[in-house]
């Protein structure tokens, strides 16, 4: 395999680009009619405490001011040669409370202008409809997705944006990392009940409502424009047994099924048999409304998209090992892997495994819509002005892209690759600016200071060459 010309690995129409989320970079949280979202009251990140009102230390309120600087930033993305740019629409910019009858025209106009700017450079938008941005009113009044009424509110929202942008956007994702609701119900599902007080019945009923809403969005989108490509988006995490002990292997299978549940229903259109026992043992009885079963069955997704940052290890007796505290979904520490500055274990081969597992399971096109390294970058003076010598990021991305190439050689159909946080933005998990992912450094810091000036990192030119050569320089 090593001697192969990498030019043959990536297809000519491969969608290279970068990924962002409105709540982490737009700012303008209270301008032009926008309502509050769950992000505006979580100043310490999605796993931190919730406040009653926005507080000045919440960096997400200003983000990196993309709302006013999008033309400058898109020009930089175009300079790198982006084929695709993943962003999200802030639901509360379109329906400020989430349950209004009439949308906010100024919010709709902003995304019109954004998509027009992308079109100037021939960059395809890839739009997430709900990226941890549930309107706060829906969380506090309805308890988020535990309430079936949210399906109707979501349908109104997606009909509005599908109709408005039917000739500007082709690629859509229904919910970001939809399986994360099991671990971060407020951030992911707008569920106001604290996780430790939330019953499994209510949690999995909320999951059902989101899955039905996703199928409904897929149905509506295909009716509005049959050329739409609509995908789900899951947090992918390959899972290894700590030892060959069959009990560890079983624990691994059970953990994996918790995540496969979401992609299985999105892609296969029905609840898998393996979840029946879990529901029975935990007293969970999913309430199906008339038409739910048919909706799930007949409106499956066109492709599977996912984020990939790390793998995890499971054991039947996890207390016997050190815990992988940095890993989003827990597990125990893998002694064979290095970790990032935030404790996320780095596993490039895991990406190849995920790609093969998903493709073998579903035979649907795959899209890697998040992957990247959060690090404490240091701005230094370079020959062309301030920059960051981020060879560690280049190394991380190169090793992961090598594995994407291997998966393509394995026969996996991969649509594209968008690195997470292609421009520095506020971290979702910790609400820090110092956890930087981008090719573009933004002069803003954890204390809120900074000029917001943009500077190209060393990785900027490297990724530009990756796109120019279609991966031949990896």
From TrEMBL:
UniProt-listed SUPFAM superfamilies: (Trans)glycosidases
The UniProt record lists the keyword Hydrolase: yes
UniProtKB keywords: Glycosidase, Hydrolase
Coiled-coil ranges per UniProt: none
InterPro entries cross-referenced by the UniProt entry: GH, GH_1_N_CS, Glyco_hydro_1, Glyco_hydro_1_AS
One protein family per Pfam: Glyco_hydro_1
Molecular function via GO: beta-glucosidase activity
GO biological process, one term: carbohydrate catabolic process
Active-site positions on this chain: 370
This protein's GO CC annotations: cytosol
Ranges annotated as spanning the membrane: none
Entry annotated with the keyword Hydrolase: yes
Family classification: Belongs to the glycosyl hydrolase 1 family.
PANTHER family assigned: 6-PHOSPHO-BETA-GLUCOSIDASE ASCB-RELATED, GLYCOSYL HYDROLASE
Record's protein name: 6-phospho-beta-glucosidase
Organism encoding this protein: Streptococcus himalayensis
């Amino acid at each position: 395999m090593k001697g192969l010309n990498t030019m043959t690995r990536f297809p000519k129409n491969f969608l290279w680009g970068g990924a962002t989320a409105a709540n982490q970079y737009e700012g303008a949280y209270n301008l032009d009619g926008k309502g509050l979202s769950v992000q505006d009251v979580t100043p310490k990140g999605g796993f931190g405490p919730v406040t009653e009102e926005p507080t000045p230390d919440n960096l997400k309120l200003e983000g990196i001011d993309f709302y006013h600087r999008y033309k400058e930033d898109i020009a930089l993305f175009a300079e790198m040669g982006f084929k695709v740019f993943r962003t999200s629409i802030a639901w509360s910019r379109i329906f400020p409370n989430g349950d209004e009858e009439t949308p906010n025209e100024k919010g709709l106009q902003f995304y019109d202008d954004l998509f027009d700017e992308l079109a100037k450079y021939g960059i395809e938008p890839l739009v997430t409809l709900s990226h941890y941005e549930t309107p706060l009113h829906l969380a506090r009044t309805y308890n988020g997705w535990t309430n079936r009424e949210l399906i109707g509110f979501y349908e109104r929202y997606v009909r509005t944006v599908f109709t408005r942008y039917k000739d500007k956007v082709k690629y859509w994702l229904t919910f970001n990392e939809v399986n994360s609701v099991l671990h971060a119900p407020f951030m992911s599902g707008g569920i106001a009940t604290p996780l430790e007080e939330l019953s499994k019945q209510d949690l999995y009923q909320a999951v059902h409502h989101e899955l039905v809403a996703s199928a409904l969005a897929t149905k509506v989108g295909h009716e509005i424009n049959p050329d739409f490509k609509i995908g789900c988006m899951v947090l992918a995490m390959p899972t290894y047994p700590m030892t060959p002990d069959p009990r560890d292997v079983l624990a691994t299978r059970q953990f994996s099924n918790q995540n496969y549940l979401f992609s299985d229903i999105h892609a296969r259109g029905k609840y898998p048999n393996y979840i029946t026992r879990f529901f029975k043992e935990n007293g969970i009885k999913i309430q199906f409304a008339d038409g739910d079963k048919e909706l799930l069955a007949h409106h499956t997704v066109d492709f599977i998209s996912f984020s990939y940052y790390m793998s995890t290890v499971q054991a039947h007796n996890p207390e016997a090992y050190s815990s992988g505290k940095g890993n989003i979904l827990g597990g125990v520490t893998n002694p064979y892997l290095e970790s990032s500055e935030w404790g996320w274990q780095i596993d490039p081969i895991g990406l190849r495994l995920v790609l093969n597992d998903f493709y073998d399971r579903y035979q649907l096109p795959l899209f890697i819509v998040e992957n990247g390294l959060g690090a404490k970058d240091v701005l230094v003076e370079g020959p062309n002005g301030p920059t960051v010598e981020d060879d560690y990021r280049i190394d991380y991305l190169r090793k992961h892209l090598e594995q994407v190439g291997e998966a393509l050689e394995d026969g996996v159909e991969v649509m594209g690759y968008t690195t997470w946080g292609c421009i520095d933005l506020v971290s979702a998990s910790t609400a820090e600016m110092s956890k930087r992912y981008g090719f573009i450094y933004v002069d803003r810091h954890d204390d809120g200071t900074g000029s917001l000036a943009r500077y190209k990192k060393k990785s900027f030119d490297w990724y530009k060459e990756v796109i120019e050569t279609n991966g031949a320089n990896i």
